[in-house]
Amino acid sequence: MKTETQANVSQVISPSELLEHWQGHRNLTRKMIEAFPEEKLFTYSIGGMRPFAEMAVELLSIASQGIKGLVTDQWEDLKNDMDHGNSKAKLLEIWDQTTEKINTYWPQLSLERFHETTVCFGKYEGKVYSLLLYFVDNEIHHRGQGYVYLRSLGIEPPYFWERL
Amino acid sequence: MKTETQANVSQVISPSELLEHWQGHRNLTRKMIEAFPEEKLFTYSIGGMRPFAEMAVELLSIASQGIKGLVTDQWEDLKNDMDHGNSKAKLLEIWDQTTEKINTYWPQLSLERFHETTVCFGKYEGKVYSLLLYFVDNEIHHRGQGYVYLRSLGIEPPYFWERL
Question: What family does the entry list (chains A, B) (predicted)?
Answer without folding.
Answer: Belongs to the DinB family.
